[in-house]
Every structure is written in structure tokens, then in C-alpha cells.
Design brief:
36% helix, Aspartate Aminotransferase, domain 2, 378 residues, alpha/beta, three-stranded antiparallel β-sheet, Aspartate Aminotransferase, domain 1, pyridoxal phosphate binding, single chain, 15 strands, pyridoxal phosphate, seven-stranded mixed β-sheet
């Protein structure tokens, strides 16, 4: 058997290593200038929208919901076809999570289903850019506005994507990113919250740093001494250190090269698999210019598990994205039941993510294609 081929992998070069080493030789390992620089560099890819760097994509969601001020009695409407963190971080703030179904072809939140799910208690409408394909953000904006809710875009998959010519990060009230090792760029672990609202950015910055207030003009007891700091609202330590921010800034310089290579791989899969009976290749809306994070092949006729096992047996790493969030026992124990979102459940039953990362060679892609085709006897 050939060497095992992972379904996702980071791309780190000598420039990345040098950027990290420079920080390690300097005075600041965390809360220093590399953080500010990374946030500014990131904003160049989000239409200038200010960024707050945090320790993970999950932290970004937790911080974003905190900035939105959600709590007990509030509702967050979101998609179940996502990693559990999109919903879990809202639940951890005490909100009720309301799941709305997805479009059967893109796997993204269906605006009509979202419209049916929102109420006057909805405080955040949270869409996910599944596989890197932006959600229908213009229609979802109308749904959010109809009930006075904030629109949150979980863009863990889609930094570098655009919708109707506007970059992801400039379209929602709050956008969250992930920089995990398999994402479109990496800081090892890491994430960010971006927002055009100065108030939301300030709240996000406060929450990621314990809620500390150091500005004397805002302190309740400003005359305590030069060392004084106060907490007015609880926060957590979600600070992304300089050493990882330096890696992020270096990676951002290759973002468009990553996007181009991912598009080439995606197109090669399309060409090699579109005539295979028993599978559906991914769709792309005319309004979307995706940064493809996943290649979500749809396997028909109940054969997804068999193909998964076949590829793994042949040394090809594949994954399933995602188990519907409310299928997890933690939500089941809260009363959520299977059958809630039929399109999402049907999509999950067919989905298989093929290897997709910037350093994947054409020969590797062809190996995957040939192994899929051999399974179907074509």
C-alpha cells in the first residue's frame, strides 16, 4: 500500500519558520506587536474590517456570541451541518439554539428555513460557509434584519472567498475564522473575530482578555494606583500569542496562491469524477468565488460508508463533514430529535470529504480519483 494520504494538511515553508524564529528571538512572545500586525494583515483580506485574533475558531465563536450579548432567554438560529462548536458556544452562553435546515445542494443554511425559524427572541442568525462556499448572505441579512438580529458568518472554511464580489469578512455583523492546521491558512491553533462595528470589536477585545478594564476614564475606582485594573463583565483568556500571529502573517502572504491551488485540485476532482455513476460533485453558485476548504463528494445509494472504508483501506484519508450538530448526545439530552432538518441529514448521509490541501500533488489527486473510480468499477 502507498503512503497514507491525509485529507488535510498544513503548508509551512522556510519563510514561515523564519517569521516564528524572529519572534522567539525577540522580547514579546505574547500580547506584543506581532498580534497587532497580524490583525492588520488579516483586515487586508476582509475588506478592511477590523480583526481580533483569538486562540481558535471555537474561541472566535464564543467571543463573537459574547460580543453580541447573548444569554439566557435569547435564541440563536443556525445550521446543523457544521462542526458542533457553532452551536455549542451559543449554548454555553445560555442561549437556546434553533436549528434551521440547509439547501440540499450547497449544504448552506437555507434562507427560507431560517426565515421560518426566527422569532422576536432571535438575537443572532449564524450561517456557516460550508466547504468554503459562502452562504446566501444577502438573503440571510434580510432575514436577520426582519427580527432585529445580528448576522454572524462562521467563515472557518472560507477566508479568501467572496460573495457577489465582496470578500468574506465584510458581509456580516460578526465573522469568525479558524486557523487550525487543515484550514486555508494556519497559525497551528488560532482564530479571529472581525466586525465593522467598533462597539462589537471593543466587546470582543475585552472578552478575549478576561474583560479587563485598564482605561482610568472607564474604571469605577480609578485612583487605586498605577497598577489598577478592573473586570466589569466576565471574559476569558483567548489571546493568540505573537509567535503564532507571526506564522499567520507569513501565511497570509501566500493566501492567494493557496486559493489558486485549491481551485485547481477542486477542478481536477470535478473533471475526474463527474461521469462516475453513484456520486454527485459539488455545486457552486454564480454569485460565489469560493476558497475551497473541502471537496464534499456526495455518495448515493447508501454506499458512503463502503467507499469511506475502501479509500481508507487504500491509504487515502477521507472524512465526513459533519454529523448534524443536534445528533450529538449533548443536544439529544436537551430534547433535540433526529428528523429535525431532513436536508441536512440527507446531506450528511451522502457526504465524503476527499483530500484537499495546497501541497497535494496532481499525482495524489489522480490516485484518489482512480481509487474512487475503481470502487464503482469505472
Amino acid at each position: 500500500m502507498s503512503d497514507f494520504l491525509p485529507y488535510g494538511r498544513q503548508s509551512v515553508n522556510d519563510d514561515d519558520i523564519a517569521a516564528v524564529a524572529e519572534v522567539l528571538r525577540g522580547d514579546w512572545l505574547t500580547t506584543g506587536p506581532a498580534v497587532t500586525r497580524f490583525e492588520a494583515d488579516l483586515a487586508e483580506h476582509t475588506g478592511g474590517t477590523p480583526a481580533v485574533a483569538v486562540t481558535s475558531g471555537t474561541a472566535a465563536l464564543h467571543v463573537a456570541y459574547a460580543a453580541a450579548g447573548i444569554g439566557p432567554g435569547d435564541e440563536v438560529v443556525t445550521t446543523p451541518l457544521t462542526f458542533v462548536a457553532t452551536a455549542a458556544t451559543a449554548a454555553l452562553h445560555g442561549a437556546k439554539v434553533v436549528f434551521a435546515d440547509v439547501e440540499p445542494d450547497t449544504g448552506n443554511l437555507d434562507p427560507a428555513a431560517a426565515h421560518a425559524a426566527v422569532t422576536d427572541r432571535t438575537k443572532v442568525l449564524a450561517a456557516v460557509d460550508y466547504a468554503g462556499h459562502p452562504a446566501e448572505l444577502d438573503q440571510l441579512r434580510k432575514v436577520a434584519d426582519s427580527v432585529g438580529a445580528l448576522l454572524l458568518e462562521d467563515a472557518a472554511h472560507s477566508l479568501g472567498s467572496s460573495w457577489r464580489g465582496r470578500p468574506v469578512g465584510s458581509l456580516a455583523d460578526l465573522t469568525t475564522f479558524s486557523f487550525f492546521a487543515t484550514k486555508n491558512l494556519t497559525t497551528a491553533e488560532g482564530g479571529a473575530v472581525v466586525s465593522p462595528s467598533a462597539e462589537l470589536v471593543e466587546r470582543a477585545r475585552a472578552f478575549r482578555n478576561h474583560g479587563l478594564v485598564r482605561d482610568r476614564a472607564r474604571q469605577r475606582y480609578p485612583d487605586e494606583g498605577g497598577w489598577h485594573q478592573e473586570v466589569h463583565a466576565f471574559g476569558l483568556n483567548y489571546r493568540l500569542p505573537d509567535v503564532l500571529c507571526a506564522l499567520g502573517s507569513s501565511q497570509l502572504r501566500r493566501l492567494w496562491a493557496f486559493k489558486q491551488r485549491r481551485a485547481e485540485i477542486h477542478a481536477r476532482y470535478d473533471e475526474g469524477l463527474r461521469d462516475v455513476p453513484g456520486v454527485l460533485t459539488p455545486v457552486c453558485r454564480a454569485e460565489a468565488d469560493p476558497m475551497w476548504h473541502l471537496y464534499p463528494l456526495r455518495v448515493l445509494d447508501g454506499r458512503r460508508r463502503a467507499l469511506f472504508d475502501h479509500l481508507r483501506a487504500n491509504g487515502i484519508g477521507v472524512q465526513v463533514n459533519y454529523i448534524p450538530a443536534y445528533w450529538h448526545p449533548v443536544f439529544e439530552d436537551l430534547g433535540y430529535r433526529r428528523g429535525l432538518c431532513p436536508n441536512a441529514e440527507a446531506y450528511y448521509a451522502q457526504e465524503l470529504s476527499l483530500p484537499l490541501f495546497a501541497d497535494l500533488s496532481d499525482a495524489d489527486v489522480d490516485r484518489v480519483i482512480d481509487t474512487v473510480r475503481s470502487f464503482f468499477g469505472v
